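Q: Predict the bound structure with adenosine monophosphate.
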Amino acid sequence: MTELSTFESLGLSAPALAALARAGYEMPTPIQLKAIPPALAGRDLIGCAATGTGKTAAFVLPIVERLQGKRGTRALVLAPTRELAAQIAEHLEMFGRGRGVRGAVVIGGVGMQPQVKQLRDGHEVIIATPGRLNDHLDRGTAKLGAIEILVLDEADRMLDMGFKPQLEKILARVPKQRQTMLFSATMAGEVAQFAAKHLHAPERIEISRSGTMPERAEQCVYLVPTQEKTALLLALLAVDESTTLVFTRTKRRADRVCHALDRAGLEVSRIHADRSQGQRKMALDGFKDGTYRVLVATDIAARGIDVEEIAHVVNFDLPHVPEDYVHRCGRTARMASSGRASSFCSPEERPLLRDIERFTRRTIDVAQVPRDSPVFSEAVKRQAEMFVESPRHRGQSRPHGPPRNRSGGGGHSSHASHASHVAATTGEKPRLVGSFRPRRRR
Ligand code: AMP
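A: Predicted complex:
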């Protein structure tokens, strides 16, 4: 280890080093190594870093260092989703505690009043999603006139989500004389223009080029008809007990997949834009603490999920935007842990697969659909039966099982273990089926 690769070498103060030690961070990640010194010096910077690289600490630590001892709201961090904002707030809590640097979390889906109070109290850092911050600006309950540090986190996603007008409105209220740090997984098109307009002689830090996959994620694709996707998912989940994040393209499909897994006896919850803030939090907390082994999510809702040790990401549907594939797979193989990403590709999705492979500059290995798995064949059989019984369910993949007594609202948790699900459906001990290893290259 060279001296230059330690936190001590980056010019951080003793309290910051102590907080890092408490957090269990031993070595800086590449983005932290490169971003912290210019950020501490007050320079503008563009950090092009994929998810899971440690970028949050790369800007939160310098904010705390630069604001300690100052009063009033002097930093603003903008993030695309409530979950990401909450995650940034957790980092600020971790590194700013005891140093007089407090965060006001200003996000939609929760009451305005507590936020109004925090804003009035002059919390040093506002962590906000653009929509809600604009509501406060319109009402005059947020003041940005003393902002010295502005962070745009996941700027690519904020622009993708159509937040540009909101961002422009906010930026017009922030003093021109300030430090701006922009983080983005990619620096394509609109983000580059936005950065050119709002940053001043930024230091550019690129940790991974656009479209780079986390090195350690093992990827494969299953070529499978849509109506067999649920059976395939059940079969893959029967292989082991690993924590699994499942992505669907729409909120409705997330609901359907979640219900199907729930009926099959898995501990599962879901997160998407139609869920309330409380429901999302419950789902995320439950996923973090292991109450739910599986979380079904849409892309936007999953953006801020920071759960260590997600062993398996399943792309139940391929994303329409190839960059989302990278973001999704970035949820596994974070930091030191390794993980795998399995994608389900129906015949209609083949063009999307081609786009992803072009974007990531990598051919994804094809894995064999585990048709010999009892779980798979049972699920397909049941679905066929259901098909005959109830033609209105045509096209929906729903393995049967006695509907369980559950109140509609929250996450779905089963008391039956997954092993008992397998045993119940097959009458035998769960056994390994299929393979995550590619059997054949395309
Ligand atoms: P981020 O890319 O900021 O979302 O961080 C991804 C995960 O890595 C989070 O759980 C962080 O707490 C963790 N992390 C960030 N930096 C370090 C580090 N230097 N050492 C260990 N863990 C880290």
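A: The domain at 217-392 is CATH 3.40.50.300 (Rossmann fold).
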